[in-house]
Specification:
389 residues, Chorismate synthase, AroC fold, four-stranded antiparallel sheet, 11 helices, 30% helix, globular
Length: 389
């Protein structure tokens, strides 16, 4: 039994849909946690006007009864509150009495616009940008929140924080535990360091006045993972590869590192790996976690550490140069309502993607039609290998 999900919907269409298949029956889900995750995706200094319009909430349409999963696919709907303003332009059906919809022919550099026009044979950029929009991540966060509910039942938690925005970098910390993330969302940029948080806000304000967008870095950490999730036997079962693909699928992400990837690339082997120890009271353990909790395509029992770099978003208040796809004449790229930076929100989306990959890995390894079956299988496995949390 594996866990899989898909999303559907356009940025200004009626709404977004996510379908999650593979959750065991009997899992109790927390409605407030689901709504809280949806609200967290909208956090962050530098967000644009869309966040003032949308107040994302999830409607469960199937797979849940009285707060517990049925073992069947869970379908969730996230309505787009801005849709009434786009009813003519984005209606699924022709609208009687309208004069047609004006097309946009001004693709944005750095976006899916131009390649999407070529690939699918469109002439209107909106046919591409509506689905390519990062608004789609609202559905991912809804799906990921369900996965986090499953992981929580197994004693696993997933967290994120911002480590860099533009030129401002937070001090590195290798001693983080779940408790350190309790108030991360209180920071206007979801940064754990108060001084760096203030500097990041100032950087956003400065570059926003110059009509610039900003990129940065974020980190996701997962705690409480059983060793042996994933596999070394086939390339497509390696968990590090699955995680990298999941994170790189997030809009504007251009790079992923697992553990201290870039740092250990410049060190000798004796300073790159995590030595193995065992004691009666602690069982198996490491004194370092340079691998970020992954060895040979599998979890090794240490906290999972995934970092990602996200480029400045490609929709800008001062558009870059482009070409009109109809006239082939030079022009400025199209303008859309936009954010200055989405790095804080991207960390929340990455939590969802990491949770979905980890939930799939647990379902793959332990199976079970009911949550009690899963818990029993995990407990038996950890006892067999002598693992202590």
């Amino acid at each position: 039994m594996n866990l899989r999900f898909t999303t559907a919907g356009e940025s200004h269409g009626p709404g977004l849909v996510a379908v999650v298949e593979g959750l065991p029956a009997g899992l109790e889900l927390d409605r407030e946690a689901l709504d809280r995750d949806m609200a967290r995706r909208q956090l962050g200094h530098g967000r644009g006007g869309r966040m003032k319009i949308e107040s994302d909430a999830v409607e469960i349409r199937s797979g849940l009864r009285h707060g517990r999963t049925l073992g069947s696919p869970v379908a969730v709907l996230v309505a787009n509150r801005d849709y009434p303003n786009w009813d003519v332009r984005m209606n699924p059906w022709p609208v009687e009495g309208s004069d047609g919809v004006e097309e946009s022919h001004l693709p944005r550099p750095g976006h899916a616009d131009l390649a999407g026009l070529h690939k699918y044979g469109f002439t209107d950029v909106r046919n591409v940008l509506e689905r390519a929009s990062a608004r789609e991540t609202a559905a991912r966060v809804a799906a990921g929140s369900l996965a986090k509910g499953f992981l929580a039942a197994l004693g696993v938690s997933v967290h994120s924080h911002v480590t860099r925005i533009a030129s401002v970098t937070a001090p590195e910390r290798d001693d983080l535990g779940p408790e350190d993330f309790a108030e991360v969302d209180e920071s206007p940029v979801r940064c754990l360091d108060e001084g760096a948080s203030g500097a990041m806000v100032a950087e956003i304000d400065r570059l926003r006045k110059e009509n610039e967008s900003l990129g940065g870095k974020f980190e996701v950490r997962a705690f409480g993972l059983s060793p042996g999730l994933g596999s070394y036997v086939s390339w497509d079962r390696k968990l590090d590869g699955r995680l990298a693909q999941a994170i790189c699928s997030i809009h504007s992400v251009k790079g992923v590192s697992l553990g201290e990837a870039w740092e250990v690339a410049g060190r000798p082997g004796s300073e790159a790996h995590d030595e193995i120890f065992h004691s009666e009271d602690r069982g198996w353990y490491r004194e370092t976690n340079r691998a970020g909790g992954l060895e040979g395509g599998m979890t090794n029992g240490e906290p999972l550490v995934v970092q990602a770099a996200i480029k400045p978003i490609s929709t800008m208040t001062q558009p870059l140069r482009s070409v009109d796809t109809e006239t082939k004449e030079p022009a400025q790229a199209m303008r859309e309502r936009t954010d200055s930076t989405v790095v804080p929100a991207a960390g929340v989306v990455a939590e969802a993607m990491v949770a979905l990959v980890l939930a799939d890995a647990y379902r793959e390894k332990f199976g079970g039609d009911h949550i009690d079956d899963v818990l029993a299988a995990v407990a038996a496995y950890e006892e067999r290998i002598g693992w202590r949390r």
